[in-house]
Amino acid sequence: MYKVINNSTTRSNIKVSVVIPVFNELNYIKRTLDSFNKQLNRNFEVIIVDNGSSDNIQRFIKIYKKTLDYNIFLITEKHPGPGLARKKGFNFILKRLNENKEINNINYFATTDADVVVPSDWINKIIDGFENNYKIGALAGSHKAFSNVDKEIKATMEIPLYFNIIPLIIQCFQKYNIGKIKLSSSNCAFRSNIYAESKGFTQPYNFNGTVALHEAELLGNKILSNGYIVSSMHSVVQSSRRRHLYNLINSTNSYYIFKESRFLSIREDEKTLLQIALESVSQKQWIQFRENMINIVINNILSKTFKNINDLDIILKNKNFTKTLNKICDKSNIEYELILKNINKLMNL
């Protein structure tokens, strides 16, 4: 069953339903909820799906409700996995849509994570993105690190825009309509009818049976295969870099052992992980790790996009695109030739 935590907005005004899965995110959920309280457009609701937390997060939400000026539903999903939790949340909304005529104005679904801060115009971006083109089935936004993380890395490692070069690269490709757009579960939205038609989220697993985290990408592929457009949301959220920092530490230094979580070993505090990484990982390793991240991003954007190398040659002759990409590289101490090398390597596979 579910519980309505707050009821400041009438159901008939709701246009966007947002699902947020939580698993032991007590240290982060407050700033996420606060960011929704700052939305310029109030026609939304939030469904929080607790996926087996043991940190009293449900109790916190029930107490913190008095500061929030929007509806919150709190439900549970006992089977582990963010894909299952998101599916439970959207199934809950679909059931209400089918049973209650008062909420039939909910046209759009969105999802994010419990360690994310959304910008104040996030709901507006979702509504505008869909209403400007009725062929769009899903909207994909990007995500960046909190500014203090990149500042500390720059101060210690002398590497500017360490994490936040990634959303800049993504936005550059999107601006000039190059490559494909990949959905990220921390920042995406769907038309409610197209979500239902695509059968919603599923839970992917790694080869060893552990929970994988690319459920949004799989859903995006289904939406595309059904003939709909996945477009840019033109919105960037801020999110924790715990998973990246954990992988950086774990790939370069076996001294540190973390408690295993159900998903990945990322339940440690971001600040703690950042300090461990700054103290134990060399600058060279930091640089190599970022280059690997950039390679993955470019691969996701360009993979299976172009039929032959001539298609890419035409794009690289776009002076505005190459000029923008050059500026991004200059800001972040990345060699422009490195990105071109990665693109050419991908195209010659």
Please summarize what this structure is.
With 349 residues, the protein is α/β, with parallel strands linked by helices.
Fold and architecture overview:
The chain is of the alpha/beta class and 349 residues long. It has a single domain (3-347), classed as Alpha-Beta Complex (Spore Coat Polysaccharide Biosynthesis Protein SpsA, Chain A). It has helices at 29-37, 57-64, 82-99, 122-131, 147-157, 165-175, 192-197, 215-225, 242-252, 270-280, 283-302, 309-316, 319-332, 336-347, and strands at 3-6, 16-22, 44-50, 71-76, 108-111, 116-117, 136-144, 188-191, 229-239. Helix 1 (29-37) links the parallel strand 2 (16-22) and strand 3 (44-50). Helix 6 packs parallel to helix 11 (283-302) and helix 11 crosses helix 14.
Structure keywords:
349 residues, alpha/beta, Spore Coat Polysaccharide Biosynthesis Protein SpsA, Chain A, 9-stranded mixed β-sheet, 14 helices, 9 strands, 15% strand, globular, disordered N terminus
Largest sheet data: 9 strands, mixed
Please give the count of helices. Answer: 14
Extended strand count: 9
CATH architecture: Alpha-Beta Complex
Please tell me the total number of domains: 1
Please state the oligomeric state of the protein chains shown. single chain
- Spatial ordering of strands, largest sheet: 1-4-3-2-5-8-7-9-6
Which strand-content bin applies to the residues?
Answer: 15-25%
What separation lies between the terminal Cα atoms?
51 Å
SSE-based structural type: alpha/beta
* Helix coverage percent: 40-55%
Radius of gyration: 21 Å
* Name of the CATH homologous superfamily: Spore Coat Polysaccharide Biosynthesis Protein SpsA, Chain A
Specify the CATH class. Alpha Beta
Shape: globular
CATH topology name, in short, is Spore Coat Polysaccharide Biosynthesis Protein SpsA, Chain A
